[in-house]
Amino acid sequence: MPNFAANLSFLYPDLPFLDRFAAAARDGFDAVEFLFPYAFDARDVKARLDDHGLKPVLFNVSPGDWDGGERGLAARPGHEARFRAAVEEALAYAQVLGCPRLHVMAGLKEADTARQHAVYAENLAWAASLAAPLGIDLLLEAINPRDMPGYLISRQQEAHDAAAATGAPNVKVQFDLYHCQIVEGDLITKLRGYLPGGRVGHLQIAGVPSRQEPDTGELALDHLLAEIDATGYTGHVGCEYRPRGDTSAGLAWLRRYRASAGS
C-alpha cells in the first residue's frame, strides 16, 4: 500500500499551521509535507514533528516573493545569488527537520526560455552538489498552466529532461497526478513508464478538476493507487488537495482504502 503524507499547507485549513501536526497524527498519518515553513523557527516545527511521531518528507525552497507573483528562482537569469541564498536557507531547515527532499520551483517563463533552461541546469547542479552530502534530493515539478499560468515546465517529460540535464542523481521529479491529468492525462501509461526508472522521487494526488479529495472528479483513485503499488514505488504519496469541508471527515476515502488494503 502506498505511504501517504498529509500536506499541511492544504489540509486542516481551519487550524493554525503548528496545530495541524497533531490533527494529522490523530487521523493516522505518520508523514507530512508542506510548502514554505520559513515563517516559523525550524526548531518549533521540529518539536511538533517529534511530539506527534511524524516524519517530514518534503517542503519547498523559497520561491522568492510569492505574494508579489514570483513562482521560483531556479530558472531566472540574473537571480542566481537570490536562488543560492534560498537553497542554503532550505538546506539549513531540512537538516534541523530531518527532511530528505526539497521541491525547487523553476519560475515563470521569460522571453529567452533557452537561456532559462541553461540557468536552470546550472543552478540545480550547484544546489545538488550541496544537497548530496546531506542525503537530500531536489525535486522538480511540472505544474499545470491553469493553476499557475506561465510556469516554465508543465509536462512530465519536461521535468525529467530538466532533471537529467543537471547530471546529478539526486535531482528527481515530483510527479503530481492532478497537474499531469489536466495537462496531458494518460496517467496509467505515465506511471508505468516513469516510476520504474527511479527518477520519480515523490507523488502527489488530488481530485480533478476541483483539486479537492482525490476520490472526487474524473480520476479512478483505487485503480491509480493499485498501479502505483504494482510499479514497486516505495516513496510517499502527498495528499495535496483542498478539503471540501472538514478535513478529517473528508478522509473517508483514505480510511476505505486502508481497510480494503488490509492495513
Automatic annotation (TrEMBL):
GO molecular function, one term: hydroxypyruvate isomerase activity
One record GO biological process: glyoxylate metabolic process
InterPro entries for this protein: HPT_OtnI_isomerases, HyI-like, Sugar_Epim/Isomerase, Xyl_isomerase-like_sf, Xyl_isomerase-like_TIM-brl
Signal sequence range: none
Keywords noted in UniProt: Isomerase, Pyruvate
PANTHER family, per database record: HYDROXYPYRUVATE ISOMERASE, ISOMERASE
Family per similarity comment: Belongs to the hyi family.
Protein name as catalogued: Hydroxypyruvate isomerase
Naturally occurring in which organism (per UniProt): Piscinibacter gummiphilus
